[in-house]
Design goal:
binds 4-O-methyl-beta-D-glucopyranuronic acid, TIM Barrel, alpha/beta, 5-stranded mixed β-sheet, Chitobiase, domain 2, 8-stranded parallel barrel, 3 domains
């Protein structure tokens, strides 16, 4: 027994000495392994010699714990926590509304912070200062990130604050432990064990979110079970909220609009009924008694079978305002989703329906309602133009909903780094207040500001099902904090924190990440194609379906390929969806000479022989892109092989296996789509694909 233990110890020491310990991905980007560059480590050690956090709140304790865990891990020795700075190199956390830097701190708010190199009785110290505890916590994580990513920590003068007030993850997690569109195992929330038993991962989840500045979590699915709001389940949610609170995470819940009927025993859920209004007020009072900092409700109504105010011939605004009135006395908000497309009576083009329903309601929502709009007008496709509601609602708070979980982009199998996609979205020019009014500007100018990302987390050891999928959680948080950060910077931070700073590893992983989203668009739905995936799992392609009853659930509705051509005409000659954008945007997308090739088939139906600006016909370009996407995946495989021995064996093998699955997935998409579209176009296959076809 003793010998066994000794062998294990020696083995782990040997592995640690080599710097490559087996890893399971559970530590995410908060690994805090010793910095391998001894000189750099020594330099850091001189600047981070002791930790001073006088704040005694639970958040103060979290800051102290994180700094001690992080610095001790990175520096390879225990960094002491002391009551007062005693020497050069102290890291001092100051939480005060009355600090010497009040003028600089005041505009940063409770979540903003300064990190400054300063002198204290002749000693050089680093001060992390904020008006609020949570700002100081964010500052502490920022300071640790500097060390984790190998940056200098002398002469610091950093000032940060979030650009949006509410930055949250939406969990599509069900009470039975399943996760809608989840690919990382069962739900993290163990409803059956709560509130008595608290999984230690709740705290790690809070740490991970706080490290990237996220401050909210909608715990349950937008396809909401009314039972989520029963007293027993609220107590469970309250237990989670208690764990998340010190890290600044507010809990929100989704609300099923029919709850007053289903769990309240009322005859109706009609917003006009005083009984219904009272029911929601009492429910809100009950929730706030259990969760005093409850954020509010998220509601999916009259969408994909969910109940809503239209069941009573009332509007989305009537429905939203009912719940808004209930939470308003407590400072809560209602996030009301604009993801509605069910009625073909509104318009034959699904892409137009949300705008047509919500635009006329502008100005009718209570001030504590935010209309939550998906990034694009269809539904989290690999690439969509921005949703025309951004910039269109002038008197309503609008927030964005992004999807971190890769519902339509290879689940937890494919490496698809989403930061470039979100950047394209944020930087899209809405022209809402003249040229240069980006989507990000519209979000930031909203009276209430917020953003949500549909989470990709689950109970898998590595949280996200794929080590690389963690990058999307990380990227979403960073962009929610500040959408101006570049995708490359985010990739660099995440890579160094998650895979270490070996130059070859960093260059390779960043190279893989950089083009991975464009590659996925290419091998799944290039040139503006969309929604041609198979209907249930949304993993495989199924371009050929045609449905009379629910055309929006079939591939043909979206690509309309026939012997003559391909694409959805959304110009004025077609559905005129372009007309929902500002005139400049409409003109840009409508004109074939200015419409970006990325959106060609989203907005236009063109002949197979139509020539793009690069000289290729649309048929040739389609073939080229499908194949190019597959080639990118093969390139990632080759790159990854070169890292054998440079990253830990456990994660190396896991990623290697996934890459091969991704290659098969990408190839399947290419071959099925090309062969289907060829059956329509009757065009010859280019030589590089003929070989592929022969092999089949
Ligand atoms: O596209 C659909 C997804 C559903 C999801 C819905 C939504 C939660 O396939 O799984 O339901 O979007 O966003 O409401």
């Amino acid at each position: 027994m003793k010998i066994g233990i000794r062998i294990v110890t020696i083995l782990s020491l040997l592995l640690a000495a080599g710097g490559i310990r087996a890893e399971d991905g559970s530590r995410l980007w908060l690994r805090y392994d010793p910095i391998p560059d001894r000189q750099l480590q020594a330099n850091y050690a001189a600047q981070a010699a002791e930790i001073v956090v006088s704040d005694v709140s639970p958040t103060g304790a979290a800051i102290r714990d994180e700094l001690q865990r992080g610095l001790s891990g990175l520096l390879g020795h225990e960094v002491p926590v002391v009551a007062n700075a005693t020497r050069s190199g102290a890291v001092v956390v100051e939480i005060s509304t009355n600090s010497p830097w009040a003028t600089e701190l005041n505009p940063l708010g409770e979540e903003g912070y300064l990190i400054r190199s300063a002198t204290n009785h002749g000693d050089t110290v680093t001060v992390i200062a904020s008006r609020g505890e949570i700002g100081a916590l964010y500052g502490a994580f920022h300071f640790l990130r500097l060390l984790q990513t190998g940056q200098g920590i002398t002469g610091l003068n950093i000032s940060e604050k979030p650009r949006l007030q509410r930055r949250m993850l939406d969990h599509w997690d069900n009470l039975n432990g399943s996760v809608e569109r989840g690919y990382a195992g069962k739900s993290m929330w163990k409803w059956d064990e709560l509130p008595g038993k608290i999984d230690p991962r709740y705290r790690d989840y809070a740490r991970a979110n706080a490290s990237i500045g996220l401050n909210g979590a909608v715990l349950n699915n937008v396809n909401a079970k009314p039972e989520q709001l029963t007293t027993a389940n609220l107590k469970k949610a309250a237990a989670i909220a208690d764990v998340l609170r010190p890290h600044g995470i507010h809990v929100y819940l989704t609300a099923n609009f029919a709850s007053p009927k289903i769990i309240g025993g009322l005859k109706t859920a009609n917003p006009a009924s005083p009984e219904v209004q009272r029911w929601w007020r009492q429910k809100a009072d009950e929730i706030y008694a259990l969760i005093p900092d409850f954020g509010g409700f998220l509601v999916k109504a009259n969408s994909e079978g969910q109940p809503g105010p239209q069941d009573y011939k009332l509007t989305h605004a009537d429905g939203a305002n009912l719940l808004a009135a209930a939470v308003a006395p407590h400072g809560g908000i209602v996030m009301w989703r604009a993801f509605v497309y069910n009625s073909p009576k509104i318009d034959k083009d699904r892409a137009k329906r949300a705008y047509l329903e919500f635009k006329p309601l502008d100005g009718r929502f209570a001030t504590n309602v935010l209309v939550q709009v998906k990034n694009g007008p269809i539904d989290f496709q690999p690439r969509e133009p921005f949703h025309p509601l951004f910039g269109a609602l002038k008197k309503t708070s609008v927030m964005a909903e992004c999807e971190i979980t890769q519902e339509n982009m290879g689940h937890a199998t494919d490496i698809v780094f989403l930061a470039p996609m979100w950047k394209e979205f944020f930087e899209s020019d809405t022209f809402a207040a003249g040229k240069g009014t980006t989507v990000a500007d519209t979000l930031e100018a909203s009276p209430q500001t917020a953003i949500a990302g549909v989470a990709n987390t689950g109970s898998d050891t590595n949280w996200c099902g794929h080590d690389f999928a963690q990058a999307n959680w990380y990227a979403f948080g960073r962009l929610a904090w500040d959408s101006r950060i570049s995708a490359d910077q985010i990739a660099d931070e995440w890579t160094r924190m998650t895979w270490g700073s070996d130059a070859k590893v960093v260059a390779t992983v960043e190279g893989m990440l950089r083009g991975s989203w464009e590659a996925c668009v290419s091998y799944e739905m290039p040139l503006g194609l969309h929604h041609i995936m198979e209907g249930g799992g949304h993993y495989d392609p199924k371009p050929g379906t045609v449905s009379r009853s629910t055309p929006e659930y079939s591939g043909w509705y979206y690509h309309k390929a026939d012997a003559n051509g391909i694409g959805f005409d959304r110009t004025t000659n077609g559905s005129d969806a372009v007309g929902q954008y500002a005139p400049e945007v409409a003109a840009h997308f409508s004109d074939l000479t200015t419409c970006p090739p990325e959106f060609l088939l989203w907005f236009h139906h063109v002949n197979w022989d139509y020539r793009l600006q690069d000289g290729n016909t649309v048929w040739d370009e389609l073939c080229f892109r499908y194949n190019d996407g597959v080639e990118y995946v093969k390139g990632m495989q080759a790159q990854w092989e070169k890292l054998r021995g440079r990253v830990d064996a456990e994660r190396f093998a896991a990623v290697q296996k996934r890459l091969e699955e991704q290659r098969l997935h990408a190839t399947k998409w290419r071959d099925i789509c090309i062969s289907y579209f060829q059956s329509k176009s009757q065009k010859p296959l280019p030589a590089y694909l003929t070989k592929v076809a022969d092999k089949k």
